[in-house]
């Protein structure tokens, strides 16, 4: 048996931000908190939301005291702020960092205690209600946060999550027009993040027919368009494919889970403040190379979905070719292909392996069980550049 969970309402497609006003009307909100990052406000992206809301008599507050890969303290401060005011709707606008904070603030506005109390690894409290309504509007094509029930926070040496279906958006609005301003480096990192979601969902032990369909279509769209989106950011078709692919990948991994790549990426992000997409991207070929034997048939399918025909290749040969294709893709979008390329010192590998081993919930979805020695071997390969 498989349980599938989807956000109640989603809009996708160029210009679909025009659905915001009707959705706000349906939610009967009046006092609206918009959570976004300061750079997006400076870019003027918030105007596209705020103007129509103000013109229609809504009261809005824009909160920008946030940062990429948000540390726990930023979450605590935002939740305190949200509790003090009487908002009746939270809108998140931005990449995964802003969206994760928006859902956290919306839910914890109606709870007691600290954010830390609700963390997955160390928290002691459970969420009791869905809090304020939330509308999530991504401006990166990466995390799929607009359709997941996860909020990720950075801790001192790793990352942890608050996760519950109460964190699901009431409405997701996925308008690729909002991603046109993404610089190549962020397009690359977030795009490979989305690809990683789709690939890990497809090889997950929890995969099912529905998540398979979502994941394969996401792999096709993202691998077909990521190079164009990175090198020609104004290309509307590539931006649309990336947005839709990232949304589908979000639905896939939310329902099937991610695994080894994410478990190893979290400590990299936590300890070295490497962007989440970059952490996933540098590890993707090495983790897939290591677990290859446990999912050869699925890797053959991934290769086909990437538009590289596996033809008459055996499953084993196709799985090797898939690893090569992933390595090539990461290089083509100019992401360093080794840990050394991110200035990770060799001495850090042991601690990274210790921390990744603690991500038991995520590791449980890997088609190949990954113990501490496996995890160390993968980090070592990623350090040396030997898939
Ligand atoms: P991000 O939100 O941190 O944004 C990265 C950078 O891109 C920021 O500097 C931001 O200002 C800029 N940016 C965003 N949109 C832009 C635009 N349209 N134009 C120009 N610049 C823009 O990046 P992200 O990768 O989207 O999110 C990363 C966070 O999401 C991490 O904390 C990660 O752990 C988390 N995450 C959450 C989920 C989930 O399901 N909730 C899944 C994966 C990752």
Describe the protein in words.
The protein folds into 2 domains: 171 residues, 3-Layer(aba) Sandwich (Rossmann fold), CATH 3.40.50; 198 residues, Dehydroquinate synthase-like - alpha domain (Dehydroquinate synthase-like, alpha domain, Up-down Bundle). The chain is built from 15 helices and 8 strands. The protein is an alpha/beta fold and 387 residues long. Nicotinamide-adenine-dinucleotide binds next to helix 2, helix 5, strand 6, helix 6 and helix 10. Belongs to the iron-containing alcohol dehydrogenase family. It comes from Lysinibacillus zambalensis.
Short key terms for the protein model shown above:
387 residues; alpha/beta; Rossmann fold; Dehydroquinate synthase-like, alpha domain; 2 domains; six-stranded parallel β-sheet; two-stranded antiparallel sheet; 15 helices; 8 strands; 50% helix; binds nicotinamide-adenine-dinucleotide
End-to-end gap: 36 Å
Q: Biggest sheet, strands in spatial order?
A: 1-8-5-4-2-3
Query: Roughly how many Å is the radius of gyration?
Result: 20 Å
> What is the H-and-E element order?
EHEHHEHEHEEEEHHHHHHHHHH
**CATH homologous superfamily placement of the largest domain:** Dehydroquinate synthase-like - alpha domain
Quaternary structure classification: single chain
| Count of domain modules | 2
Proportion of residues in β-strands: 5-15%
Number of helices: 15
The overall average pLDDT, rounded, is 96
Number of strands: 8
């Amino acid at each position: 048996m498989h349980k599938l969970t989807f956000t109640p309402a989603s809009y996708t497609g160029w210009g679909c931000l025009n659905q915001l006003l009707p959705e706000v009307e349906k939610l009967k909100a009046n006092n609206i908190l918009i959570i976004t990052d300061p750079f997006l406000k400076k870019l003027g992206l918030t105007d596209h939301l705020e103007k129509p809301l103000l013109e229609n008599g809504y009261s809005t507050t824009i909160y920008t005291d946030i940062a990429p890969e948000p540390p726990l303290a930023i979450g605590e401060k935002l939740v305190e702020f949200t509790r003090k005011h009487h908002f009746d709707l939270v809108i998140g606008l931005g990449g995964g960092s802003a969206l994760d904070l928006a859902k956290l603030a919306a839910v914890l506005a109606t709870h007691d205690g600290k954010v830390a109390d609700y963390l997955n690894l160390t928290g002691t409290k459970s969420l009791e209600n869905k809090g304020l309504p939330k509308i999530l509007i991504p401006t990166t094509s990466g995390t799929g946060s607009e359709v997941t029930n996860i909020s990720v926070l950075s801790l001192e040496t790793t990352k942890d999550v608050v996760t519950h279906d109460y964190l699901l958006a009431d409405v997701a609005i996925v308008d690729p027009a909002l991603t046109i301003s993404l610089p190549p480096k962020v397009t690359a990192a977030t795009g490979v993040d989305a690809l990683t979601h789709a690939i890990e969902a497809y090889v997950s032990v929890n995969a099912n027919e529905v998540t398979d369909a979502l994941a394969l279509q996401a792999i096709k769209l993202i691998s077909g368009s990521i190079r164009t989106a990175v090198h020609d950011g104004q290309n509307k078709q590539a931006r649309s494919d990336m947005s839709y692919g990232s949304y589908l990948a979000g639905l896939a991994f939310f329902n099937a889970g991610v695994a080894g790549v994410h478990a190893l990426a979290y400590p990299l992000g936590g300890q070295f403040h490497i962007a989440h997409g970059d952490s996933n991207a540098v590890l993707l070929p090495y983790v897939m190379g290591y677990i290859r034997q446990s999912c050869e048939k699925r890797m053959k399918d991934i290769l086909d979905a990437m538009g590289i025909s596996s033809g008459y290749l055996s499953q084993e040969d196709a799985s090797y070719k898939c690893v090569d294709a992933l390595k090539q893709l990461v290089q083509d979008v100019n992401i360093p292909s080794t840990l050394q390329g991110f200035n990770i010192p060799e001495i850090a590998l042991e601690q990274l392996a210790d921390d990744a081993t603690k991500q038991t919930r995520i590791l449980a979805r890997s088609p190949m069980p990954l113990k501490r020695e496996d995890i160390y071997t993968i980090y070592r390969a990623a350090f040396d550049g030997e898939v």
